[in-house]
Design brief:
Helix content: over 70%
Number of strands: 2
Strand order of the largest sheet: 1-2
Radius of gyration: 19 Å
Order of helices and strands: HHHHHEEHHHHHHHHHHHH
Shape: globular
Amino acid sequence: MRLTLWIDCFISNIMRKSCSFSIFETILQQHSKTVEEFLGAILSASTRNGEITRPARLLAAVRYGVFNGGKRLRPFLLMESAALFNTKSKPAVAVAAALECVHCYSLIHDDLPAMDDDGLRRGKPTVHRAFDEAMAILAGDALLTLAFDILSDEANGLSAEIRSTLVLSLARASGIGGMVGGQALDIAAEKKKLDEREIIMLQLMKTGALLRFACEAGAILANASIDDCARLAEFGKAIGFAFQLTDDLLDVREDTAILGKTAGKDVIAGKATLVALHGVEWISQQLDGLIAEANEILQPYGRKADVLRQAALFISHRRN
């Protein structure tokens, strides 16, 4: 499929950069569709072994929080990282879906009145607005639990050892020393001015931890070497930081209609960001450096990593 896409672009005489992004976007959409089909099946009204029943309103809130748009970037990164090592697609899809469950749960909870208190997500009312606050909390809880259900289920085709490693890795990335801890630091930042080191730490946890897991997990499930797992983790760290820096830029540059969420929240909340500390030009320079670093990390994989290289560019040039 990918070879055909490259040939089609060549025949059409599209500029190399435009051709590459066209392929990237096509593969991104393909992976998104595959993961959504998996999630659609697992989030049906049918109960699974060990369950009693699935309350209709809770299930509706969960599905609303999952199927309200989104690029599925984290699943994409996981699946492409796994593809570097020629792994089978079925296990990668399952792990990618589990990761997306954690990401969707985090967005539902981040939007709550006690957290970021946002009424808009991806251009639609947030879950607590569309349903109610209690149902949004439960929907997030259900998705977090489901993530580890998927990872630990032998039906995903992975060995018990790899499943265990992935469960532990995702728990560490999403818990008190990862994403959740980052959210706690973010809340504290509303009352305390952070310095550069503290801001970077917050961003590496709240946003970067899951993106790093996405890349490292692709290597883990492919049973790649320790060096390869570490290399993909470093790639994930670089693009995770780039993702947050781009988010900071978008928060001051774009409006709510383009972002699909409330613009200018950090300024309104009085939060310290690297944009506020150093300015837009400094951030742009940092992004260029991070993309160069990401490309250097992928050098051992040659052309096989071209899609991941395009992902790094996409992350730093997106508008929402």
